[in-house]
Amino acid sequence: MNPIDLKNRTIKRFKNGPENEQKLVRHFFGDKTDGFYVDIGANEPIIQSQTYHLEQLGWNGLLVEPIPSYCELLKDQRSGITIQCACSSPENEGQRLQLSLAEGHSTLNEKPIAKGSVSHESIFVTCRTLDSVLEDNLVKPGFEFISIDIEGHEMEMFKGFSLGHWKPQLVLLEDHVLNHEKHRHMKQNGYMLIMRTGLNSWYVPKEQNFKLTYSSKVQYFRKYWLGLPVRQFRFRQ
């Protein structure tokens, strides 16, 4: 059963696993062939990419990545525009901050958010606000899709991202749900949570009028409230 009923604007199941995530994203957009994406923390160009499969349909977009070696791969293997920087707050605009390298779990944060992630090397990377990146590339508000995967630095990034202005149609936001900061921020800026796939939370503008079935609401409650103390305890260990 497909959990997204586009005809009736209903989420039948609040999924909580990475199975068929890319297929669900394509279904959400009706296999659209001319969409625009923004990939924040693009990382490796193909493997586990949130946007490569959309390029295969004909989409174009921006690939934002701070690690030089990944940027070279992105420029060589992807058709989107590669921008070498880390997205952060207005206070960090133009600053060079230390990035702890751990492949897909590289982070600007002092403590890695990914359990078991270990870094033995770091580099300094240039920071920009996402607002400035979008403005410089003449991105139009209301673009289709944004993926945000920056290993715990999201709240700093949000300070430089005017979500209410850009209003992407679907936001895939990595969230280990160790607190409700990111969730509250999305709600306060006019978005509602409709699904989880793996560590990614799916948010859409409230005016899209999606409805969650009773079972979806129960699963949401279990994930965001009942399971929160256990995850917080494990993260502190």
Q: Describe it for me?
A:
It is a single chain. Helices cover 29% and strands 25% of the residues. The chain has helices at 21-28, 52-55, 68-77, 130-136, 154-158, 163-166, 181-188, 214-226, 228-236; strands spanning 4-5, 10-11, 36-40, 60-65, 81-84, 86-87, 96-101, 121-128, 145-148, 170-174, 191-197, 200-205, 211-212. The termini are far apart. A 7-stranded mixed beta sheet has the order 5-4-3-9-10-12-11, sandwiched between helices. It has a 3-stranded mixed beta sheet with strand order 1-2-13. Strands 6-8-7 form a 3-stranded mixed beta sheet. Strand 3 (36-40), helix 2 (52-55) and strand 4 form a beta-alpha-beta unit. The protein has one domain: 3-Layer(aba) Sandwich (Rossmann fold). It is α/β, with parallel strands linked by helices. It contains 9 helices and 13 strands.
Topology, pairings included?
Layout: E1 4-5, E2 10-11, H1 21-28, E3 36-40, H2 52-55, E4 60-65, H3 68-77, E5 81-84, E6 86-87, E7 96-101, E8 121-128, H4 130-136, E9 145-148, H5 154-158, H6 163-166, E10 170-174, H7 181-188, E11 191-197, E12 200-205, E13 211-212, H8 214-226, H9 228-236
Parallel strand pairs: 2-13, 3-4, 3-9, 4-5, 6-8, 9-10
Antiparallel strand pairs: 1-2, 7-8, 10-12, 11-12
β-strand amount: 15-25%
For the sheet with most strands, the description reads: 7 strands, mixed
The parts where pLDDT drops under 50 for at least 5 residues are none
The spatial strand order of the largest sheet comes to 5-4-3-9-10-12-11
Radius of gyration: 17 Å
The secondary-structure element order is EEHEHEHEEEEHEHHEHEEEHH
